[in-house]
């Protein structure tokens, strides 16, 4: 009996230690980012590094957003991400509606899903080389539309798999009932199916938005000026310049993280489902 | 034409509607996806001004020693990152599954584990800079203050340390993903079989080896698929943290291809590399996709 007691104590000690260690390893870097963003220029070059800020200030934030004009990049990011979400969801629904609601051969359905899955393995750098040539030829280089196009394409596999999962869960009978009452197929889709699928569609929207928000490689290559540059490109500019202004860089990092973290709180139940194409479902 | 029309008429109204919606949408997406593939093959067979040169770009791409350094770096990166993420994620999932019973604490761990997954890699690169950068990095400060290491370590200046630093960022961001997938897998293990095993006197290792592992096996393949897809395309945080350096020690495949195209402006060679990468990734994909536990119905 005493043996069991020590085992239990040992176990809970181990758990506490592991959780505490993970807490420090995840908490400290984010804390340090935030603290650095609150430092004044003077404190940056102080000879001793303070782990707790002495005179916290939001100067770095206004420096990044206003003096450097990054609010324009933030605006570009929002425009690109919202458009990407809309395009991806519409195309995703157009493809998944017939697959889940109408009689199509199983081979076609499996084929489409497999094809979407294979796009997940596609390395962006290999695609961006021809895409760059296309974008220059049709003269959309440094325009948001070039990003919206490629982001929609790369997010379509997620959209198809997630929407397929959500739509199959809604019983066909509900729409059938509406149509027996005289509703057209379109009305049944718009008034019955879509409201029922709304939580799933919202979840897909949040995930696609977050992915598009994080995207960096395409934005780096396909944009050149604040006309279309997204926020991550601006952050990169602060990092690779000759002399790094640490507090500005940290403030930009905090701003880049803020929106995804807020969205995550809303869509937290669906993030893992999205990342695993619907295999892992949280209750 | 006659036969097609007859076949079309034989379909029910719903079937016809399905094809009316699907065919335009799928063919549009298919064309948009295919154009870059066709173009990259043309690019790989010609010079910048469009003259056909045959396989010249391929022989130049494959003869370049930097390619093999990039492949080696990507391999080393994957071999550091994947086993550590899977082992850590698995241990943590088992630990929380077996010892944490309070639903509130479990929910809190869930939210914290989601957090790194949604943070933009560029922002994580910034965090990593603040930690490892020479002169300003806080890691050296902490080491000096609490461990007593007085010599400044140049984390990003030494090839081995730089690779470890870059890998640590990946491990930081993606171990929680492995944890979340495996933890939710452990929830599907039927309680009766665990209880039966405990009555039979199975210790925790036997429980894991003969019961849990059985339920987790398909998830390992899933994790491998998604992590491999991401590891092979890693670009953002490495670009921010080391830019591929020092030298070419952290120049992973994506960074190398970026450099060939956008720093050396050698489109022919970059396109040839892209084709080689696309072909080899497709082969890799067909190998893994076959055994993926996804509901395709």
Based on the coordinates given, report the CATH architecture of the largest domain in chain A. Orthogonal Bundle
> SS-based structural class of chain A?
mainly alpha
Query: By helix and strand content of chain B, what is the structural category?
Result: mainly alpha
Helix content of chain A: over 70%
In total, how many beta strands of chain B?
Answer: 0
CATH fold name of the largest domain in chain A, please?
MetI-like fold
User: What about the largest sheet of chain A?
Assistant: none
Task: Determine the mean pLDDT of chain A.
Answer: 88
Q: State which percent range the strand residues of chain B make up.
A: under 5%
Q: In the CATH hierarchy, what is the architecture of the largest domain in chain B at level 2?
A: Orthogonal Bundle
Provide the CATH top-level class of the largest domain in chain B: Mainly Alpha
Average residue-wise pLDDT of chain B = 89
Could you name the key traits of this structure?
heterodimer, A: 283 residues, mainly alpha, MetI-like fold, 2 domains, 13 helices, 0% strand, globular, B: 297 residues, flat
